[in-house]
Amino acid sequence: MAFILEDEFGDIIAKARRGLGLTVGQVATESGIEAKDISQMENYTKKPSRDEVDKIASTLQLDSNKLNAIATESWSPKATETKYDPSLEVITITAKVGGYPVHAYLLICTKTREAAVIDTAANPQTIIDRIDKININPKLILLTHAHGDHANGLQDLEDALNCPTWIHANEPKPRSQNDLQLLRHGDIISVGNLKIKTLDTPGHTPGGCSFYARSTVIVGDALFAGSVGNASISYEKLLSSVQENLLSLPKHTVLFPGHGPATTVEEEINHNPFF
Ligand SMILES: [Fe+2]
Predict the structure, then answer these.
(1) Which end of the chain has fewer CB atoms at under 10 Å, N or C?
(2) Structure pTM?
(3) Please, what CATH class does the domain formed by 79-271 belong to?
């Protein structure tokens, strides 16, 4: 099986360690594993034994069975086999920023062909080219957060699509052609027959948010399959908002992250070691 996750074992333990405010030395003392071995695991130059996975998981408050499945590359999500609501179409547009893939999304009402563009992938022309090739009518731009790989090129996208942009009220504001429209948790925006609900998922950024329509959520960098985004603002808020606002949704709900493969609520409940 090709290993396709955005985050591997090393990323996950480094994120959990930083999130808890621990040094490598502190994890070593607590877990009984040598610091140099932990550093090598974080840098992917050492594969952990099952015993090491258990000790690290216990120290970092991660689920050891779920963490072990990722360490041994024996799980990846099967979201592509999940059928989502036929009233909605999701198109993933992947571009590269600094060599790393990032996803923007088109959320399309299949009845009216009206669409929301979610994030810029810092490649507005790639998005414009895709829209030109399909029969849709983009009505607005939504930003999950303001990091450059998700929001750069916004002005060019606004120019080309002649659309307003919506972003969470707590998020730093990228340059825009118009006054940005501000969102808060629970706000609903209509696109065709779709009602797109804003869900707070802060912690990676101050006003990071997710967009929920029918059985689909675009989650930005709040959650990756089997992992979470970097908790640059608050690890506690990131984990609690993902738990409360994403993992509480119906199990078949498909989650589309800003990086890596799509997943589902059920896959994440069963396999994400942070929860
Ligand atoms: Fe980000």
Answers:
(1) N
(2) 0.96
(3) alpha beta
